[in-house]
Amino acid sequence: MQNGTVLFTGGGLALYPYADYSSLAIGKSGIRNLAYSLHQELSPKGIYVGTLTINGFVKEGTYFSPENIANTFYSMYENRTETEIMFEEK
User: Fold this and answer.
1) Which of 19, 20, 44, 74 is most enclosed, with most CB atoms within 10 A?
2) First-to-final CA distance of the chain
3) What is the top-level taxon of the source organism (predicted)?
């Protein structure tokens, strides 16, 4: 049974901290931890929780375009299988 969806947007600083952006990295790590914790708690109730960790700069006309990100979020919503998807250029 599917009862809802919660999606978060994270950033690569959660996994690859950089001293000049340490305060931002703390926030991104917190979002990632919250997503995983909520996933554990809510998935048995049919609520999907996922986070898309964007490891790059959002910019139109690039791999990190808002359209590509939105399509990935929609795929997460539809599939409901992964707690985290790493959005990074291959």
Assistant:
1) 74
2) 34
3) Bacteria
- Mean of per-residue pLDDT scores for the chain: 95
pLDDT (tens digit, 9 = 90+) per residue, 52-64?
999 999 999 999 9
Query: String of b and e for 22-33 (b: at least 16 CB within 10 Å)?
Result: eeebeebbebbe
Number of domains in the chain: 1
Residue 4 CA to residue 49 CA, distance in Å, equals 9
**Above 80 in pLDDT, residue 1?**
no
Q: What are phi and psi of 28, to 5 degrees?
A: -65, -35
What is the DSSP secondary structure assignment for residue 87, as one 8-state letter? E
